């Protein structure tokens, strides 16, 4: 459950989703949030954390996990 994810869990998921979906890699240090914090930030703030070319795909995957 992403609500329970630590910062480390979020970074592990981001690495996994990037590799699994063959997405552009990016600087993970920009995403220093827990799962709960990412949920609370909302879509527009979340999208600003990632490169534009992958942000929508990663957001959609995150939303699937949240539900």
From TrEMBL:
<dbReference type="InterPro" id="IPR013761">
    <property type="entry name" value="SAM/pointed_sf"/>
</dbReference>
<feature type="domain" description="PNT">
    <location>
        <begin position="1"/>
        <end position="67"/>
    </location>
</feature>
<protein>
    <recommendedName>
        <fullName>PNT domain-containing protein</fullName>
    </recommendedName>
</protein>
<dbReference type="Pfam" id="PF02198">
    <property type="entry name" value="SAM_PNT"/>
</dbReference>
<dbReference type="GO" id="GO:0043565">
    <property type="term" value="F:sequence-specific DNA binding"/>
</dbReference>
<dbReference type="GO" id="GO:0006357">
    <property type="term" value="P:regulation of transcription by RNA polymerase II"/>
</dbReference>
<dbReference type="GO" id="GO:0005634">
    <property type="term" value="C:nucleus"/>
</dbReference>
<dbReference type="GO" id="GO:0000981">
    <property type="term" value="F:DNA-binding transcription factor activity, RNA polymerase II-specific"/>
</dbReference>
<dbReference type="GO" id="GO:0030154">
    <property type="term" value="P:cell differentiation"/>
</dbReference>
<dbReference type="InterPro" id="IPR003118">
    <property type="entry name" value="Pointed_dom"/>
</dbReference>
């Amino acid at each position: 459950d992403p609500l329970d994810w630590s910062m480390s869990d979020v970074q592990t998921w981001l690495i996994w989703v990037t590799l699994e979906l063959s997405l552009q890699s990016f600087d993970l240090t920009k995403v220093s949030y827990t799962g709960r914090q990412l949920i609370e930030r909302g879509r527009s703030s979340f999208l600003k954390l990632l490169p534009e070319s992958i942000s929508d795909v990663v957001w959609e995957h995150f939303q699937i996990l949240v539900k």
